[in-house]
Amino acid sequence: MIQQFFYCFFAIYCFCVLFSVPKSELIFCGLTGAVGWFVHLLLIESFTTIPSIFIAVLFIGMLARFLSNKRKMPLTIFIFSGIMPFVPGGGIYNAIYMIIMNDPNALKKALETIEIACTIAIGIVVVLSIPDKIFKTK
After folding, report:
1. At CA 27, angle to CA 26 and CA 30, rounded to 5?
2. Using 50, 70 and 90 to split pLDDT, how confident is the model at 135?
3. What are 37-60's pLDDT values in tens digits?
4. CB 124 within 8 A of CB 57
5. Residue 29's closest CA among 58, 64, 5?
6. Which residue from 14, 52, 20 is spatially nearest to 33, judged by alpha carbons?
7. What is d(CA 94, CA 86) in angstroms, rounded to the nearest whole number?
8. CB burial of residue 137 (10 Å; 0-12, 13-18, 19+)
9. Where are the alpha helices (DSSP H) in the chain?
10. Closest CA to 6 of 31, 23, 29, 24
11. pLDDT single digits (tens) 69-124
12. All residues at 6 or more sequence positions from 93 whose CB lies less than 8 Å from its CB, including other chains
């Protein structure tokens, strides 16, 4: 689990370098993604995939809003880096491939992918609906 934390940190850090995130924020972006993945790993043992991703995205959103206010940076830097481990790009690819190959499990895979994408979106919306004054620092 700790090994995955560091792998996730490194992957998100490199992703942020690739997308020209300011150098002063690279470590915070990496930590946002790695902490979110760590929360997911802790919860996946007790819950199924969808609830664990939802709670992890809530945690990521709150951490991102706090860091955004503390570091005086746009929220999107931290939100995008936090949710990157959960974005179902591979699931989308597999679902389309299964549809093309007439696999009978294609619909199941497509619905699972849509569930994950919607879970991420709903989690972000829930966190963004919290008043900003809660995350303000002096």
Report:
1. 85
2. confident
3. 999 999 999 999 999 999 999 999
4. yes
5. 64
6. 14
7. 15
8. exposed
9. 2-18, 26-44, 49-71, 75-83, 89-100, 106-128
10. 31
11. 999 999 999 999 999 999 999 999 999 999 999 999 999 999 999 999 999 999 99
12. none
Tokens in use for 46?
A: 């007790």
Q: At CA 94, angle to CA 39 and CA 35, rounded to 5?
A: 15
In the structure encoding, which two tokens stand for residue 75, read together? 């929220």
Q: Which residue in the block uniquely carries the two structure tokens 């007439």?
A: 102
Q: Left, alpha or beta for 48 (phi > 0: left; psi -120 to 50: alpha)?
A: beta
Token pair belonging to 40: 């997911």
